[in-house]
Amino acid sequence: MPGTHFPGTALPIIQAPMAGVQGSALAIAVCNAGGLGSLPCAMLGQDALAAELRAITAGTGKPYNVNFFCHRSPEPNPQAEARWRSALAPFYRELGIAAPDAPRAGGRQPFSHAAADVLEAFEPAVVSFHFGLPAPDLLARVRRWGAQVIATATTVAEARWLAERGVDAIIAQGLEAGGHRGHFLDPGLAGQTDTTTLLRQIVAAVGVPVIASGGIAEHADVSAALQAGAASVQVGTAYLLCPEATTSTVHRAAISAPEQANTALTNLFSGRLARGICNRLMRELGPVSTMAPEFPLAATAIAPLRAGFEARGSGDCSPLWAGERFRQCRAIPAAQLTRELAGAPLPLP
Q1: Is-contact 183 230, C-beta < 8 A?
Q2: pLDDT at 106
Q3: Please, where are the H alpha helices in 125-279?
Q4: Are 321 and 179 spatial neighbours (Cβ–Cβ below 8 Å)?
Q5: Are 316 and 309 in contact (CB under 8 A)?
Q6: In angstroms, rounded to a whole number, what is the distance separating the alpha carbons of residues 51 and 23?
Q7: CA angle, corner 113, sides to 112 and 119, nearest 5?
Q8: Cα–Cα distance between 253 and 316 in angstroms, integer?
Q9: How far is 255 from 261, CA to CA, in rounded Å?
């Protein structure tokens, strides 16, 4: 089908890596349907990463993508942590629990030589990066087995930066997209825009394939992106209700609720801007707070609140990541969704 540029895939559909709401099962289903399935790896230790890669290898003979973050791991700041726990104190009191100790490190780890050690045994066809690129020696290890390297850009400046460093394709992440913003040159939002505008700007600015990401929920969106110059599209939110996703009960309920709220960018859950469905924590603290510790340390103080409220069936303190088009999510198999997005006929049973 026109638009695809990953050898071994039949459709120009990349399933966005979504940490916390998926594992290997979703990636396998998308790969077997003809798209490029993705595995989010930033929250996986070496043993868990190896186990998921073994599952994908056993579940599909198709190419797949593994995704890593490239952030700088911050040093914990006791003063900032104290201010953050103080801001969250009313929620701890409501649950009758104590605030956790200050974190030594965040739950999300940047790409490392330890992760590369695991990958080398599997040689995934595509390796993608969020928040920039890893150090040159790490990138060289990925290229050594012939992997295609793709990375996220949220501005033309970031796209040019990536192209200058030899990436094979660039993901143009528009403001509509759910989950963490991939910006890495400028933490502000002044230069960022919608997916269609960003796609056209980046296509005109670089000489590598560009992947449209954000606000893509149906076949018409895919067709429009390809016509605007995209080589492929990356889709995340649309997969959240698929049975192969591990989306939590409260997250699924928030997506499907008849009184569905809007989405907003927030830094409350991790310390970095990400788009999710508005909930009580975002309303009461404001979606963006200067008290939230640096990414990913803010998540430590949130974790017990999330667990406590989810045990009550509430998503009041949960990161309900979703893009602006979340109302169009459907609870259908991932293979069916993948082929519908691409306008491909479903295989005969």
Answers
A1: no
A2: 55
A3: 136-144, 156-164, 195-205, 219-227, 249-256
A4: yes
A5: yes
A6: 10
A7: 95
A8: 12
A9: 9
What was the pLDDT predicted at 1?
44
Distance of alpha carbon 17 from alpha carbon 24, whole angstroms = 10
What burial class does residue 249 get, using C-beta atoms within 10 Å of its C-beta: 0-12 exposed, 13-18 middle, 19+ buried?
A: exposed
Cβ contacts of 110 within 8 Å, gap of 6 or more: 42, 68, 69, 70, 71, 72, 73, 131, 134
* 98's tokens: 């104590």
Judge whether 269 and 320 are in contact, CB under 8 Å: no
Average pLDDT for 47-59? 98
- Taking only the tens place, the pLDDT of each residue in 54-98 is 999 999 999 999 999 999 888 888 899 999 999 999 999 999 999
Span 276-293, pLDDT tens digits: 999 999 999 999 999 999
pTM: 0.95
Residues contacting residue 54 through CB under 8 Å, at least 6 positions apart: none
With beta carbons less than 8 A apart as the criterion, state whether 222 and 342 touch: yes
Peptide bond into 296 cis (omega under 30): yes
Helices (H), 99-194: 113-119, 136-144, 156-164
- Structural tokens at position 12: 């120009």
